[in-house]
Specification:
By secondary structure, the protein is mainly α. It is built from 28 helices and two strands.
């Protein structure tokens, strides 16, 4: 009896079930589902071998069909099973194999149609007139999963092949009769996103070309909020020459995942403010879309169950994810972009010399905007802020040059403490708080307080009254939260509870906290506050020594700056010289004298400087 296609389909489906059993292992090894060339060698080898075995089944079927058994022409379903296996391997070889299988599928369809012409079994065998879009998606997914490979050459090749498949092969509507949909474009944009700026230097330009192909020139400019550039020439991302990019006859509407991917790409393009503004515009668009969907869902009494649809087998759409996008990472990407843009102007996260009182006004606007995002984030489970969120905002305020930066920092610390208490109460109870890792739970630590103290340094530089005292209060608060040094109080449950829930060892002051406090004192401008700032700075230094923390040369340089800035009058010369000599001798005894320290010494005590040089 002749073999039928149903037997082969059953055999291939059983093999595909085996592949599905490995999916969980692959997901663990691949992070977001992308493959790896070396992260899980056993799984990759297993998938590769399985794919080769299934591919040989397809070849055998095609051979038998050509010999006269027309009923065993491998149909598209079988090809998709094999292509799915190769798409999960995550190597360039496997992705290229999936791509070749797509070509074989197209040829097989043509041969099968010719062979089954006029035979009633053609419909039963499931022969379609052309490959479905799903087949192209599997190939795109194959190339996307190469992005986790450590071999940059393989990643670049995979990106180029994915672009060629979507922008050239799949756009050939006359030949295939297929039109790419939002999933098609999302797979390519996701591939580019995972490759990153380090591997694809002109990543933004290449993504722009894809999006213009998707929505047209005007639609692209509207999507990224740059309608004022409507008359600017378009540059080919590969050649750099001015060109009019081709657009499909039917544009595709971006969904929430499209915007999420684009936002991440633009936000990670540090040092270019234009892309930060694009990310902000996309975030606002996503928030508006979410609010409309939430309002629509609230009025829908049927409340249908939503499911995660497939892009190949895992797709994304606004209907699927409007309750989770924009999520916490979406917001954090925008915050990081704002911070990186400011750091392109101010190279240090925390000023090591003095706080810039001529900070661009845009920096304060960024800090205000970032603080406002907190209110939007806490309204949705998927975007609950983490510790990183709050630290990004604190650092933005530390760079803002705003007179009330310290007040905003204290407000943010208070929000963190409230949020941390909510997370602790929700522990084990599910929800967004329960999904935060210990590192993400927004319980203030030493770095948070350090950033807040830096904010008071900004306020001190802008003549905010008692700024140094407010910074010292934060140090006192840190020390008050540290445990008394006991690991346990035995059977005393009440006191043990205090150790576990009241004390916070992560806020124990370190050398950087003390250095930041001393620098903040050095920024004091109000004459009425200078005496207190001088006392606080040396009190902080003494506490540092008592805690066994060795000051570095930067700390001593800042103490010399304290002597100059807070004892500026001619009548204070003797006190200034005596104090600066004490600081310099301590630095010399600890082996911390360097060129920077000597420059500070020359400014504050020229006589001592000359004697040391001689």
């Amino acid at each position: 009896m002749k073999s039928s296609i149903h037997w082969y389909r059953a055999a291939a489906s059983s093999a595909d079930d085996i592949a599905d059993d490995d999916d969980d292992e692959l997901d663990v090894a691949e992070g977001k589902g992308g493959g790896t060339d070396n992260g899980s060698a056993t799984v990759v080898t297993s998938e590769q071998s399985l794919g080769q075995h299934l591919s040989s089944i397809l070849s055998e079927m095609a051979t038998r069909a050509r010999k006269g058994n027309s009923y065993v022409w491998p149909n598209e379903e079988l090809y998709l099973i094999v292509m799915k296996v190769f798409s999960q391997v995550g190597t360039l070889t496997a992705a290229n194999t999936a791509h070749r299988l797509l070509g074989r599928l197209e040829k097989s369809i043509q041969e099968a149609q010719a062979s089954l012409n006029g035979i009633s079994g053609g419909e039963e065998a499931g022969i379609s007139s052309r490959p479905r879009l799903h087949a192209y998606h599997l190939v795109l997914q194959s190339y996307r999963n190469v992005m986790s490979s450590p071999r940059k050459k393989h990643v670049r090749t995979a990106v180029a092949e994915a672009e060629k498949l979507l922008l050239k092969e799949l756009q050939n509507v006359d030949s295939h009769g297929l039109v790419p949909n939002v999933v098609s474009y999302n797979l390519l944009i996701d591939t580019l996103s995972r490759a990153g700026h380090g591997v694809i230097p002109n990543l933004c330009d290449r993504v722009d070309a894809v999006v213009e192909m998707m929505v047209g020139r005007e639609g692209f400019l509207l999507l990224v909020g740059e309608t004022d550039r409507a008359n600017t020439p378009w540059l080919d991302p590969h050649t750099g020459s001015s060109t009019a990019a081709k657009s499909p006859t039917q544009h595709v509407t971006p969904d929430m995942f499209t915007k999420h991917l684009l936002l991440g790409i633009y936000a990670s393009k540090s040092s270019d403010r234009r892309y930060t503004e694009r990310a902000k515009h996309l975030l606002a668009s996503m928030e508006e879309s979410r609010e409309r969907k939430v309002a629509s869902a609230a009025g829908d009494s049927t409340s249908p169950k939503r499911r995660r649809r497939g892009t190949a087998d895992r797709g994304w759409s606004e209907d699927d994810f409007f309750m989770t996008l924009p999520n916490r990472e979406t917001y954090n990407a925008v915050l990081r972009s704002l911070l990186q843009t400011s750091e392109a102007v101010q190279t240090n996260a925390l000023p090591s010399d003095e706080y810039n009182t001529n900070t661009p006004a845009a920096f304060e606007e960024d800090a205000i905007y970032a603080t406002g995002l907190l209110d939007a984030m806490i309204r949705h489970e998927a975007s609950q802020p983490s510790k990183f969120t709050y630290n990004y905002i604190l650092r933005l305020w530390a760079k803002s040059g705003a007179r009330d930066a310290g007040l905003h920092a204290e407000d943010i610390l208070s929000r963190m403490e409230v949020r941390s208490a909510i997370c602790a109460g929700a522990k084990g109870g599910g929800g967004g708080a329960a999904r935060l890792s210990p590192a993400e739970i927004p319980k203030p630590d030493a770095l948070c307080y350090q950033n807040a103290i830096a904010c008071w340094g900004v306020s001190a530089a802008k003549s905010y009254p008692a700024a140094a005292s407010r910074a010292m209060m934060l140090l006192n608060k840190m020390e008050a939260q540290c445990s008394p040094g006991y690991e346990s109080f035995g059977n005393d449950d009440v006191r043990n509870y205090l150790l576990d829930h009241i004390y916070n060892e992560s806020v124990r002051p370190n050398r950087f906290v003390f250095a930041t406090l001393i620098m903040s004192c050095a920024c004091t401008q109000l004459d009425a506050d200078k005496a207190d700032a001088l006392r606080i700075a040396f009190d902080a230094y003494n506490r540092m020594i008592d805690m066994g923390l060795a000051p570095n040369s930067e700390t001593y340089a800042n103490l010399l700056k304290i002597c100059k800035n807070l004892l500026p009058e001619e009548s204070q010369r003797d006190q200034r010289n005596q104090l600066s000599q004490t600081v310099f001798e301590a630095a010399r005894d600890h082996g911390q004298v360097n060129a920077r320290l000597l420059m500070r010494l020359r400014d504050v005590n020229p006589v001592l400087y000359e004697s040391y040089q001689n």
